[in-house]
Amino acid sequence: MNPYKLNRRRFLSGAVASAGADICAPWSLRNALANASVNSDNDRILVVLELSGGNDGLNTVVPYADDAYYRQRPTIGIRPERLIKIDDHFGFNPGVVGFERLWKNGELAIVHGCGYENPSFSHFTSMAYWHTGAPNSGNDYGWGGRLADSMSPEPQLNYIINIDTTQSLAVRSAVHNPVVFDEPDRFQRKGLQPALALLDHVGTSSSSNATQAYLNDVATSAREASSLVRNAWSAYKSPVDYGIAPLQLPKIAACISAGMPTKLYYVAFRNNSFDTHVQQGPLHERLLTYAADAVHGFIRDLERLGLADRVVVMAFSEFGRRVPENTSLGTDHGAANVMFVAGKNVNGGHYGELPSLTELDEGDNLNYTTDFRRVYASAIDGWLRQRHAAKVLNGEFETFPIFS
After folding, report:
1. Cα distance from N-terminal residue to C-terminal residue, the chain
2. Which CATH number is 3-183+239-385 given?
3. What is the pLDDT of residues 188-220, one digit of tens each?
4. What is this structure's pTM?
């Protein structure tokens, strides 16, 4: 039996997409909010955080009790005395103070060995597999978009929000048009010029022409979504410290606090930040500090707002790093990795089977022990309580008991 399948909490307690890229579908805000009220019995929210670039899981959750770790990483391996030890086998990277606080509260789950068969070492390809939930195949829509379509087969305004400069494939939907923005104050003016012209000049008068009426409704929906986001952000004030780089999470807190009917939020720590090929140590620690402090601040902020019981954060990266360090004191593209799930209703602890540090593949990579879609399925069926995971992910994946 794997000792790291323990439940920490039980143990402790006994598109509008930027106005111009993907504009919202033509329905009124009033109808959308009315539709949302039909599903008011399930007000749970999932926030997905992408750590772009391939985060080094072995130097994030460090297996300091395994001598093989230090044999593979004699220079960049983090010595036990520098780690934030969480048990007799693992310690957090010194930068992961925010995660340590969540761990101590029983609010952080660590899922080990996450990956898929025949891993790709291309950022673009592997991220596409994670975005679609369809490794070594493909799908026209993202797993988050398919999830939204399954939860609400009829379009609803503001059902998905993607905070970024461009829409992620993960939230591409057949039914819903995600709201995509990075700066709420400039939301209404972002996008391509033809679309901006559409927003400026369409929708100002009624029309009996079907096409004109359609465009009027599109423009009106776009303006309404833009206004809601900007008003939510302008009304939001928080004393909570999210750290040096909040990773857009305060904007999500603002939208949730404003009562927007969004079920799925997607945000990314972009620009391949975690692609640490050279002199990894100080950079990686700093990046982890940004991420861990931001997630911790977000959970505490939701707690302040009385909304923490509604929200869970799931964090992933498109792949881990190769086990041995390279000659540039960094690590190269690898395979299996850890995933994190955080929130007040998380049963904190270790999940999944630990990958071996001695039985590696021919490229010196960890062999995956957990199909990452098991974590997706756990979020879909265990947290959102949809019972649609098999349909969304096109297959049956055993869930983890991560949620209270």
Report:
1. 23
2. 3.40.720
3. 544 434 444 444 554 445 556 777 765 665 566
4. 0.86
